[in-house]
C-alpha cells in the first residue's frame, strides 16, 4: 500500500468492515429467498392447497418485484441517504417475511411475496453504494469480495438451506421456517445498521424523483420480465409477444431520460453511465452470466428430485458441492482484482463453463445406467469446479463495473447492474428450464419417462447455460485485450 493510500485508510471509519458484514447479511437474506423457495414449492402446495399457477407466482411474484425496484431504490439512496433507504428496506422485508411465513391462504402468500420482493429490491443497491462510500479504491476489491460471496452463496445455497429447514420442520411447518428465519436475521441487521452506518453526507435539497421516468422504467421492466417468469407456468410461446411493447416502453424511457428528464435536471438514470466502457461492458457481462448462473442450480434440483427421486434434503446436499465452490472462490476473486483485473473474469468464466459442461456429460452418460447416489457423487467434482468459477465472476465484475463510476451515483449504478442481473435470472431460468421440460416431455410422448430421459434433459439444458457463459467469456476476453494489467494494489 502506498503512503497516500495508508493515510487515506487511517482517516476512514474504523467500523467499516463490521458495518459491511451487517449490510451483507441483509443482502444475503434477500437473495436466499430467490432460490430457497425452489425446494419448498411441493410442501407449500401440500400445506396450503395452492395450485400450480399460485405456486408459480410464489416464485414469479418475488422475482418480478425484486427486478423492478433496484434502479429507483438506488436513485432514492443517492439523493435521500443510503442508510435511511436501507433501514426502510430491511424493516419492510422483515414485516413481509412474517406475512409470508404466517400466510393462511395462497392469495396472502402470493401478495406477501410480491411485497417482500419490492422491499428486497430497495436493499441491494444501497449496499453497493455504501461499499463505494465507505471504502477507498484500494480496498473495494476486498469489500466487493465479501458482497460477492453473499450474492454467490445465497443463490447457490438456497436449495441446500431450504432442504435442511424443511427436513427440520416437516412438510407442514418447514416451508414456513424458510421465511420466518428472516425475522431474527433482519431485526438484528436493522439494529446494527442503525448503529454502525454513518449518516448521509450533508447536501442541498434532495432532487425530486423523476416520476415519469420511474413509471416508464417500472412498466418496461415488468413487461420485459413477465413473459419469462410466467412461461414457467404456462409454457406458452405467445407470451414472448409481450416483449414488443416492453421494448417500446423501454425505448420511451431512454428517450425521456435523454430529453425531458435531462432538461429538468434530475433524470432517474444518468445515461452517461453507459459511456463508461467498464460499466457498460460489466452490465452486459452480468446479464449474460446470470442467465447461465441462476438456471444451473434450478435445473439441477429438477433433475435430482424429478429424475433421480431425491428428497429436498438429498437434493440440497448434492447441490452443496456447487455452493461450497462459490463460497470458497468469491472472496478470493475480489482480492485478485487489483492485480489481475479482467483476467480474473476470463479464468473464472472458463472454469464455470468447463464445470457445467462436464456436469452435463456425466449426467447424460450415467443417468439410467448407475444408481442415483453414484450419479450424484460422480457429478460433485464437476459441480465444485462450476461453483469455483461462478463465485469468482460476481465479485470481480461488480468491482470492475463500478470502479470508474462517481461515488455520488454509486447506488443508482449498482441498481442498474442488479437490474441486469435480475433480468438475466428471469431469462436464464425460463429458457433453461423450458429446454429441460421440452426434452423430458418429448420422451414422455413416446411412453414412460425414464431416468435416462431426465439425464438427457438436464444435459441439453446445461448446454444452454454453457452458451450464455461462453458469450460472457467473449465480453471478458475483449476487455482483457483492451485494458492493460493493473499495477500492484494501492499504486
From TrEMBL:
Q: Which residues form the Major facilitator superfamily (MFS) profile domain?
A: 19-484
Domain of life of the source: Bacteria
Q: Membrane-spanning regions, if any?
A: 17-43, 55-73, 85-104, 110-131, 143-167, 173-197, 209-231, 237-256, 284-304, 316-337, 344-363, 375-394, 426-446, 458-477
What Gene Ontology cellular-component terms does the record carry? plasma membrane
**Which UniProt key words apply to this protein?**
Membrane, Transmembrane, Transmembrane helix
InterPro entries xref list: MFS (IPR011701), MFS_dom (IPR020846), MFS_trans_sf (IPR036259), Sugar_transporter_CS (IPR005829)
- Cellular compartment(s): Cell membrane
Q: Which Gene3D superfamilies match?
A: MFS general substrate transporter like domains (1.20.1250.20), Multidrug resistance protein D (1.20.1720.10)
Does the record bear Transmembrane helix in its keywords? Answer: yes
Protein's membrane topology: Multi-pass membrane protein
| Record's keyword annotation contains Transmembrane | yes
A molecular-function term among this protein's GO annotations: transmembrane transporter activity
Give the main localization category: membrane
Q: What is this protein called?
A: EmrB/QacA subfamily drug resistance transporter
**Which organism does this sequence originate in?**
Modestobacter versicolor
Amino acid at each position: 500500500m502506498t503512503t497516500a493510500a495508508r493515510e487515506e485508510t487511517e482517516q476512514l471509519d474504523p467500523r467499516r468492515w463490521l458495518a459491511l458484514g451487517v449490510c451483507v447479511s441483509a443482502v444475503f437474506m434477500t437473495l436466499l429467498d430467490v432460490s430457497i423457495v425452489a425446494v419448498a414449492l411441493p410442501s407449500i402446495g401440500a400445506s396450503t392447497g395452492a395450485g400450480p399457477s399460485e405456486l408459480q407466482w410464489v416464485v414469479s411474484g418475488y422475482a418480478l418485484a425484486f427486478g423492478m425496484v433496484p434502479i429507483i431504490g438506488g436513485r432514492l439512496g443517492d439523493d435521500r441517504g443510503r442508510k435511511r433507504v436501507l433501514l426502510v428496506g430491511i424493516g419492510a422485508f422483515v414485516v413481509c417475511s412474517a406475512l409470508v411465513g404466517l400466510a393462511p391462504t395462497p392469495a396472502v402468500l402470493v401478495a406477501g411475496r410480491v411485497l417482500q420482493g419490492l422491499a428486497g429490491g430497495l436493499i441491494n443497491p444501497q449496499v453497493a453504494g455504501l461499499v463505494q462510500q465507505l471504502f477507498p479504491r484500494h480496498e473495494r476489491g476486498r469489500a466487493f469480495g465479501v458482497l460477492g460471496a453473499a450474492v454467490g452463496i445465497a443463490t447457490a445455497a438456497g436449495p441446500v438451506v431450504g432442504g435442511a429447514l424443511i427436513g427440520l420442520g416437516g412438510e407442514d411447518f418447514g416451508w414456513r421456517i424458510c421465511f420466518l428465519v428472516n425475522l431474527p436475521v433482519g431485526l438484528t441487521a436493522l439494529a446494527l445498521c442503525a448503529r454502525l452506518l454513518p449518516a448521509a453526507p450533508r447536501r442541498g435539497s434532495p432532487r425530486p424523483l423523476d416520476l415519469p421516468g420511474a413509471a416508464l422504467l417500472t412498466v418496461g421492466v415488468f413487461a420485459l420480465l413477465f413473459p419469462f417468469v410466467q412461461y414457467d407456468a404456462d409454457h406458452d410461446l405467445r407470451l414472448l409477444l409481450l416483449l414488443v411493447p416492453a421494448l417500446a416502453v423501454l425505448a420511451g424511457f431512454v428517450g425521456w431520460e435523454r430529453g425531458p428528464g435531462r432538461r429538468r435536471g434530475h433524470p432517474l438514470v444518468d445515461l452517461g453511465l453507459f459511456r463508461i466502457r467498464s460499466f457498460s461492458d460489466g452490465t452486459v457481462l452480468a446479464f449474460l452470466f446470470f442467465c447461465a448462473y441462476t438456471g444451473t442450480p434450478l435445473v439441477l434440483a429438477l433433475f435430482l428430485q424429478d429424475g433421480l427421486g431425491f428428497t429436498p434434503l438429498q437434493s440440497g446436499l448434492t447441490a452443496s458441492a456447487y455452493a461450497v465452490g462459490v463460497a470458497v472462490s468469491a472472496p478470493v476473486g475480489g482480492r485478485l482484482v487489483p492485480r489481475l483485473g479482467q483476467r480474473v473474469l476470463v479464468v473464472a468464466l472458463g472454469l464455470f463453463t468447463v464445470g457445467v459442461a462436464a456436469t452435463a456429460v456425466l449426467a447424460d452418460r450415467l443417468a439410467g445406467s448407475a444408481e442415483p447416489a453414484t450419479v450424484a457423487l460422480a457429478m460433485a467434482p464437476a459441480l465444485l469446479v462450476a461453483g469455483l468459477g461462478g463465485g469468482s465472476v460476481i465479485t470481480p465484475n461488480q468491482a470492475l463495473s463500478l470502479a470508474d463510476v462517481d461515488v455520488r451515483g454509486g447506488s443508482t449504478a449498482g441498481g442498474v447492474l442488479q437490474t441486469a442481473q435480475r433480468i438475466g435470472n428471469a431469462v436464464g431460468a425460463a429458457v433453461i428450464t423450458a429446454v429441460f421440460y421440452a426434452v423430458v416431455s418429448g420422451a414422455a410422448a413416446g411412453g414412460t419417462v425414464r431416468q435416462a430421459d431426465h439425464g438427457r434433459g438436464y444435459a441439453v439444458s446445461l448446454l444452454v447455460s454453457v452458451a450464455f457463459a461462453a458469450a460472457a467469456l467473449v465480453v471478458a476476453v475483449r476487455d482483457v485485450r483492451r485494458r492493460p494489467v493493473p499495477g500492484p494494489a494501492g499504486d
